[in-house]
Amino acid sequence: MPRYVSSDEAVDILATSTRVLVIGCSGGGKTTFAAKIAACLNLEFQSLDRDVRWLPGWVERDRAEQRETIKHLALRERWVMDGSGASSFDLRLPRTELIFWVRVPRRVALLGLFKRVFRYYGSVRPEMADGCPEPLPDREFLSYIWNFEKRYAPLFIKRIDQYGPEIPVVVFRSHYEMDAIVKSLTERG
């Protein structure tokens, strides 16, 4: 079982953390949260979508090349990494000091996705690779979000137990909880 900690404990852990992983369902706000945390802590922001997975034109980078890139990113000393691919937890978790797991209800994730599409449709959002304009979501992507908790949460738990059982994990069920962490960090200065 992952080592769950409270948000209050997380703020104290963040005071000495230099490598933080943010995982969760698309549309849940994990990328926005990860970027804010990175800015507050003056850590490098790494996005698996932008820095690893996608090439211009929504061409997916070769899996072996993705793993090699993730390996090099994880070896850096100071980062906040945004990305949920459990297949690379073996590379990332041994270097991670704290995990934030965004587990908002599916309606919140879907609403977040639609807000993102409304804001960025046809243009490249800041956290995405160059040449990958925001598309309309297809049935496969909507299904991914709809079934995320059932399909991926058990895998996340298994991989955390396997590769980082001692790593503190904070679970967010709302944007309010994420905002409270950012506010605490901002107030600490």
UniProtKB/TrEMBL annotation:
InterPro entries: Cytidylate_Kinase-2, P-loop_NTPase. It comes from the Bacteria. Gene3D superfamilies: P-loop containing nucleotide triphosphate hydrolases (3.40.50.300). This is AAA family ATPase. It comes from Rhizobium lemnae.
